[in-house]
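Q: Joint fold for the lines below.
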Amino acid sequence: MTKLVEVSTELVYQVLMNVKDPEIDSVSIIDLGMVEEVTTQGNNVKVVLLPTFLGCPALEIIKLNTMNALKKLPEVGNVEVDFVFHPPWTSDRITEKGHVNLRKFGIAPPPRHFEEDGSWHVDCAYCGSTYVTMDNIFGPTACRSILYCKSCKNVFEAMKPVSTLM
Amino acid sequence: MNSHDKLMSSEYIEATKDLLLQLADDDFMYSYRGSEWLGLAPHIEADIASSSISQDSMGHAAMYYKLLEDLGVGEANELAHCRVAHERKNSILTERVNGEGYYMETPQYDWAYAVVRSYFYTQAKKIKIDSLCESSYRPVAEAAVKVRMELYYHRLHWETWFKQLMSSTEVAKKKMHDAITLVMDDFGDVFSYGNQKQVIETNRLIGTEEELKGNWKASIAPVFLALQMEVPVIPDNPIKNGRNGEHTKDLDEALITLSEVYNLDPVAVW
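A: Joint structure:
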């Protein structure tokens, strides 16, 4: 008789730290705040994820990568990965480590604060200057905007702030 | 009857399905028409923005189809691709072509029309989403909170285009006014729930048609006031009501194109 191994949620979280955003390989789905819940029952694992943007084509890839990463563990049996809409993902779920690693990738993290009129400001992802202009609120992916730094003359991307206050 | 029984009543479920189909089909067609601008928008930033907005909107449609799947209506992909025109509940406005010609040949699309349609539609969607956040059907209410955050950027984008073109050259203004006339001719069913009006409204799935129309007018009034223009009048009786499956030939043609790849092999995993 095979011994039933209890998979710990800590182990699952460790694995999920290596599941990266397919388009930004410096940040994991945990750094992005996409992991809402991890539950285990015996050797079965269930992961509940929050979609960043509803139309993001990376979602299916993330789901598949999450399943494959967990299935690699010998002690893991059945894996279920689901997306839910509630609570809604907001950009303040991105961790401090996520902020650091987004910047490493050349993407300015979303601002922590909004002005009273709802406007927001980000600093250059490369040199940190505040002397930047917004070129396009839409960028190469739904979650990013394109900005230009007038100090270091670089074009850079910023992750859009997404908040229920909007 | 307690609230749980009410949630489970067949009338409630039927009304929910109908509303979800209206919302899903609207975003599905709107994003398809938006995607036809790929590579054709006036400049690259407009192209990128239009693509992102279309992608988001298709995500919203997919989410509504998924909620319908959860209610046992059918598989989401089939709901999107396999239903014939008279089963569709999108508003006429969302199915209209972008202009003359075909995407693959010589498209002579009308950017003024795209801007006005997108701005008015997005503003209408915002009004609906605000109301849906209070829906009695909780899965819709929760999803609406998510959609509202993304919509913020869509609305901002189209309002900027709208204001700038309305404040531009005489030619631009003329084109925009013509586009407003065309868009408003089709606006009669945007806030209609068709034959399901009574059950959708009494079950508090969303605000009443009259309430939402009022909110839409009030929400665009400041922009029109700044441009010294009258807020356009929403026609009372639509010539065709998409909510009841009445459509133009534009929808038939769009559905053929949209489902071409899917129908090559409906069981394929792409």
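Q: Anything notable?
A: The mean pLDDT of chain B is 94. Residues 138-166 of chain B form the longest helix (29 residues).
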